[in-house]
TrEMBL record:
InterPro entries: AB_hydrolase_1, AB_hydrolase_fold, Pept_S33_TAP-like_C. The keyword Signal applies. Residues 1-22 form the signal peptide. This is Pimeloyl-ACP methyl ester carboxylesterase. GO terms for molecular function: catalytic activity.
Length: 474
C-alpha cells in the first residue's frame, strides 16, 4: 500500500522523440550493476495519450533476464506489477532467485509502468490532500467531499507538467504493455500479474486477447466485476480471519486482551469511537481524530506477522485506545486517510472506475457491508477519494469478452485475496485458481515454493492443476 513517505516529488522532464509508425527495437545493454547477474536493460518511448500517437512521449524502462537454456526457449514472460505505482524491474530483481526454473525456458521481462514514473514526477501540489477522509453519512457530506476533491484535482491539473494526470488508466497501461511486446518482437506473450496489476492485465485481455499465450494472476483484484463487489467479497474473509485472531488471543496470555472477549472489546471500541472520536497526535501527520470508521478501515492486519507480532501490537493498541490513547493507530490511520485524499495517489486509480457513482451507491454499499461484516463494514476508504474526479473514467468496470482468451491460472491466499483472484479467473472458461492456505499476498514474489511450482508448470507447459488444488502454508 502506498504511504506518504514513499512518494517522491522531484519533477523530471519527459523525453519525446519516437516515430509514430511503430515501436523500434530497444537497444539492450548490460545492467548487472542492478544486482542481478546477466540482467540486460533498455528503454522504449510510448505516447502519453494513446489517442494522440504523434504527441508527447513517456519513456518506459525495461529489464530482461535471458533464458538460461536458449536452445529450449519458449518466449518471454512479462511481469505486470501492482501498487499501482510499483516498479516491475524491482519486482524482477526481488523475485529472480525464486524464478530460476521458469527462466530456463523463458526470458523474464520487466518494465517500469507509467504510474511508477508519475510517482517520481508528481508535482508537490498533487500530494496535498483535498481533505481528510471520514465516513460520509448524508448526501450533503458526500457533496462537500466531492467539491473538496474536485478543487484539489483542479489544482493538481494546473501544476502537472508531465501530461500523465489523465492518462494513467489501465487501458493506457495495457497499450504500453503491448508496445513492450512489439519491442521484444514477440507474436504472443506470457504474463505474471500481481495485485493491482490484475487491472491492466484485464485491460490487456480486453484489447489484445489473441496476444496472450498464458496469464498467471497472483492476488489480483477483479476490477471487471466492479470495486464494490470486491470489497463485499473480501469482508466475510476478513471476518473469518478476525475470528482466528480472537481465538488466538483467548489461547495466548501475551495478548493484551487475553481473558476477555476480544471481539466484544473491539466492537465496543469502534462503536464508542464513532460517537466520540479519539483525539490523537501523529509525529508525521499532526493532530487528528480516530473514528470507528478509521479503525474499521485501517487498524486490523489479516497477516499476524512473524510470531504473531502484528496481532500482539493490534491487541495492545486496542487496549490503549479503549482507555483514550489511540497512539497505536495514529500514524497508519491518519496517514492513509490523507494519502487516499491526495490527487497524486488517486490519479492512478480513479480512471479505472474505483470511485462510487454517487451517494446512493455509497449508501447501498455501506448497508450491505455492515450486514456482512459487523467488525469492518463501512464505506470503502479507497473509493471515497475519487469523488470529484474531473477526468474521464476511461476504463470502467464492465463485462470482459472472453473470446480468444486462453485459460488463466490464478493464485490467492484463503486469508485474503483468493476470493478476488478466483472471481476473476472464473470469468475465463477453463481457468483454475489455486488456494494458498495461509496469510500473505503475491506468492511468487514472496518465495512460496508450491505456488511458484504451479505457476512454472502452467507457464511452461500450459498445464493447469486439477480443480480444488491447494498449497499448504509455508
Amino acid at each position: 500500500m502506498m504511504t506518504v513517505t514513499n512518494i517522491a516529488v522531484a519533477l523530471v522532464a519527459l523525453a519525446a522523440t519516437i516515430p509514430a509508425s511503430g515501436t523500434p527495437k530497444p537497444s539492450w545493454r548490460d545492467c548487472a550493476d542492478q544486482g542481478v547477474p546477466g540482467m540486460r536493460c533498455a528503454a522504449i518511448e510510448v505516447p502519453v495519450d494513446w489517442a494522440r500517437p504523434d504527441g508527447r512521449k513517456v519513456r518506459l524502462e525495461l529489464a530482461r533476464l535471458p533464458a538460461t537454456e536458449p536452445a529450449r526457449r519458449i518466449g518471454s514472460v512479462l511481469g505486470v506489477p501492482g501498487g499501482p505505482g510499483s516498479n516491475g524491474i524491482e519486482d524482477l530483481k526481488h523475485g529472480a532467485a525464486d524464478l530460476t526454473e521458469l527462466r530456463r525456458r523463458f526470458d523474464l521481462v520487466a518494465y517500469r509502468p507509467r504510474n511508477s514514473l508519475w510517482i517520481q514526477q508528481v508535482p508537490p501540489a498533487c500530494m496535498r490532500p483535498g481533505t481528510t477522509l471520514t465516513e460520509t453519512r448524508s448526501p450533503r457530506e458526500y457533496e462537500a467531499l466531492a467539491a473538496a476533491m474536485a478543487k484539489a484535482f483542479t489544482t493538481c491539473q494546473k501544476a502537472d507538467r508531465t501530461g500523465l494526470l489523465h492518462h494513467m488508466d489501465s487501458l493506457s497501461v495495457a497499450r504500453d504493455m503491448d508496445a513492450v511486446r512489439r519491442a521484444l518482437g514477440e507474436e504472443r506473450l506470457s504474463f505474471m500479474a500481481n495485485s493491482y496489476g490484475g487491472v491492466p492485465a484485464a485491460a490487456y485481455a480486453r484489447l489484445f486477447p489473441r496476444r496472450i499465450r498464458a496469464m498467471y494472476l497472483d492476488g489480483t483484484i477483479n476490477q471487471v466485476d466492479g470495486w464494490p463487489r470486491q470489497w463485499l467479497r473480501a469482508l466475510p474473509v476478513h471476518e473469518q480471519v478476525f475470528r482466528r485472531f480472537t481465538a488466538w488471543c483467548a489461547d495466548t496470555p501475551a495478548c493484551a486482551l487475553h481473558g476477555e472477549d476480544a471481539g466484544a472489546v473491539w466492537r465496543t471500541l469502534i462503536r464508542d469511537a464513532d460517537r466520540r472520536p479519539i483525539p490523537v497526535t501523529s509525529s508525521e501527520f499532526g493532530k487528528g481524530e480516530l473514528t470507528g470508521w478509521h479503525l474499521r478501515g485501517f487498524a486490523f492486519s489479516a497477516d499476524p506477522g512473524p510470531k504473531e507480532t502484528r496481532w500482539l501490537e493490534f491487541a495492545e493498541s486496542v487496549d490503549k485506545a479503549r482507555r483514550g490513547d489511540g497512539s497505536g493507530f495514529a500514524d497508519f490511520a491518519l496517514g492513509n486517510a490523507r494519502i487516499w485524499a491526495t490527487p497524486g495517489a488517486l490519479a492512478m486509480t480513479c480512471a479505472d472506475g474505483r470511485g462510487f457513482a454517487g451517494y446512493s451507491q455509497l449508501r447501498e454499499f455501506r448497508r450491505q457491508a455492515e450486514k456482512v461484516s459487523p467488525n469492518f463494514g463501512g464505506s470503502a476508504f479507497d473509493a471515497l477519494g475519487c469523488a470529484g474526479w474531473p477526468g474521464k473514467v476511461a476504463n470502467p468496470p464492465r463485462p470482459l469478452p472472453v473470446s480468444g482468451l486462453p485459460p488463466f491460472l490464478g493464485m490467492g491466499s484463503t486469508w485474503g485475496d483468493y476470493v478476488w483472484s478466483e472471481s476473476f479467473t472464473r470469468l475465463i472458461p477453463g481457468s483454475r485458481t489455486v488456494a494458498y492456505e495461509g496469510p500473505g499476498h503475491v506468492m511468487y514474489l514472496s518465495g512460496k515454493k508450491c505456488p511458484i511450482r504451479y505457476a512454472t508448470e502452467y507457464l511452461t507447459d500450459l498445464r493447469l492443476p486439477e480443480p480444488g488444488t491447494t498449497c499448504p502454508a509455508e
